[in-house]
Inverse folding.
């Protein structure tokens, strides 16, 4: 992966984030490996700093803006920045434009699972059959940052632009549901190609139960945090899940630890991580830079 570090020729960046850089390194490695398989010329910029999300959340706005400005300066030469962290993605996509001096950021943002989902829809990738996974029941946990936080932003944006809120309320529901369908497109394709059985938990999408890690809860109240995550895993057990997937390194860590502590007997994976670990990617046609950029229009 060294060739991607400070790759000056790349127009696409990968913002790794604190959690995947220092704790869930497997998430970052899996994401890079998927990009490499897809033939994406990307860069990892050594100067990246914390996205500022924890500081925005606790009201330390001056510190958050300082970090934001550093990141905007570091990544400003790129056309697109990818993320594997739900919190970092939400912060760059939703918070930075609100606090940046120009009211916008000079690059597009995309979560890695968006890319995989869009490539499935464009019929550029499929998945390979896998004997280890065939017949396994897989469920998905919607992270708060990728779920409710993004949904609220969609709602607020449409309301601000609306001239007929009665009609646009339908548009809001449709847009939110389309966003929640992004990882489910991947899971249904895994069901079709790999032979897993995708089963939803009782509380999903806007009603998804928090994993218990965010908002400083894991740091300040670790026992309560892990018990909350265990309650979420009770729901996974209730649908007979063998594997619990998610697309947030923080959710992954909390679910993984609660699974170990409370003996839920499931496997916990990041969705991209699972695709990489079981070598599931079946590339029909590698996407061009132009095609990737259009996917985020």
């Amino acid at each position: 992966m060294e060739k991607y570090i400070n790759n000056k020729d790349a127009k696409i960046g990968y913002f790794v984030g604190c959690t995947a850089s220092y704790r869930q390194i497997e998430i970052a490695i899996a994401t890079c490996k998927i990009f490499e398989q897809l033939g994406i010329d990307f860069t990892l910029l050594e100067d990246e700093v914390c996205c500022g999300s924890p500081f925005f959340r606790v009201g330390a706005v001056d510190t958050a803006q300082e970090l934001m400005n550093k990141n905007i300066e570091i990544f400003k030469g790129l056309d697109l920045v990818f993320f594997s962290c739900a919190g970092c993605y939400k912060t760059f996509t939703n918070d930075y434009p609100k606090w940046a001096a120009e009211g916008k950021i000079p690059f597009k943002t995309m979560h890695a699972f968006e890319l995989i989902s869009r490539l499935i829809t464009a019929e550029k990738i499929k998945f390979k059959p896998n004997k280890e996974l065939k017949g396994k029941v897989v469920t998905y946990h919607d992270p708060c940052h990728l779920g409710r936080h993004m949904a609220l932003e969609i709602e607020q944006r449409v309301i601000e632009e609306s001239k007929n809120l009665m009609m646009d309320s339908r548009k809001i529901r449709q847009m939110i549901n389309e966003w929640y369908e992004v990882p489910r497109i991947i899971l249904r394709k895994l069901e079709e190609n790999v032979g897993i059985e995708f089963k939803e938990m009782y509380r999903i999408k806007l009603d998804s139960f928090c994993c218990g890690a965010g908002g400083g809860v894991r740091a300040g109240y670790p026992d309560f945090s892990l018990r909350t995550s265990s309650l979420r895993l009770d729901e996974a057990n209730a649908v007979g899940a063998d594997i619990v997937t998610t697309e947030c390194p923080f959710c992954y860590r909390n679910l993984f630890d609660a699974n170990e502590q409370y003996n839920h007997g499931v496997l916990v994976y990041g969705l991209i991580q699972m695709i990489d670990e079981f070598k599931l990617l079946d590339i029909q046609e590698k996407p061009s830079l132009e095609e990737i950029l259009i996917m985020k229009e």
About this structure: The two ends are 29 Å apart (CA to CA). The mean pLDDT is 94.
